[in-house]
Structure formats: C-alpha cells, structure tokens
Request: fold
Amino acid sequence: MRIVVFFSGTGTNLESIIHNQKKYGYEVCACFTNNPQAGGIHICEDHGLECKVIDNNHFTDRVEYDKEIDLYLNSIEPDFIILAGYMRIFSSCLVDNWEGQIVNIHPSLLPKYPGLNTHQRALDAGDKYHGTTIHFVTSELDDGPIIRQESFEIEPSDDPNSLMDKIKEIEHRIYPETISFLNK
Ligand code: GRF
Reply:
C-alpha cells in the first residue's frame, strides 16, 4: 500500500509514519506540504523522501490551489492520502476525486472541538477526558466517518502543553498502526 503524507508544521506524526513503514507494511511514496517553512521538510530530507512543496500563498483561489494538488496526486497515484497536521481544508472537488482515500488525525474526541485550540477548549469545558481521532475526510472541517479514537483522563495538573504532549504520544503509536489496517 502506497501512501502520501500531507503536513504543514513540525511533522512529528510524519516522522512516526515514516519510521514505522517496515513494521506495518506500507510505503510512504511521497510527502507534501503547503508551507515552505515547515519543519517536516527536513524530516523528509533526512529519510531521502521527495517532499513536494506548493505554497498556498501563491494562490488566491482555494479551488485553483486544490486543482494543483489533484494534478500532483494523479502523478503519484497513492492508495491513501494521510493528513498529519495539514492545516488546510480540502475543497469538495478534491475530496470527491479521492473519496474514501483521505484520512486525517485530529487532536480531540470528535465530534467535540473541530478546528483549533482543542486542548484549551477541553480544559475550559472541564472535560474529564481528552483524546485524538482518526477519521476519513469530507469537505466539512474535521468531519467524516471515524476510524479510531483513543482517550485518556485529564489530570488536575494538565495544561494545553501537557495535553498536546500526551496526545502526540498516542498519535505516534496509533496512526501508523491504523494506516496499516486501511484497505483500498
Ligand atoms: C497533531 O496533534 C494532529 O492531531 C493535528 O496536528 C498535530 C500535528 O503535529 N492534526 P505534528 O506536526 O505531527 O507534530
């Protein structure tokens, strides 16, 4: 199974996905970012992987930008498109063309807290539990059928940073394993 990993930032999930390729029997055939400054680009270089960069700031129209992504995806023909901290919403034409093949990980127990600042929002709400969700992507933000969730109990000493660390530790473990269960 060939996957392409999309990211926008530091890329710690990207790294764990690359690192676990052999263990779980999938192949990262390419990586993609919208952000020329993304730290994850160095992770790709360190692993000898091609990273395609298309800067979204060079486009005024989201659909035009996504058409470029579609061309790129057609050139590599991945089985799955794995979003790992990719901070843009796909337009419906792109989602329709790759229906059932786009997977995202979101740091909350969806349907709670789509969007940003999920850790602070869980604390503000006084939630007992927090966690992460792996789901198929639709053109709605952080929506789509849930594939897997994992939760943990919030402790009184937790703050947004400690919650982020705990979530990433879980994500680095469950995202590669869940990718290996996907079937084309
Ligand atoms: C992860 O927590 C993921 O759930 C969210 O963005 C974060 C990406 O972190 N979508 P990293 O770039 O993989 O470190």
In short: The radius of gyration is 16 Å. The first helix runs from residue 12 to 19.
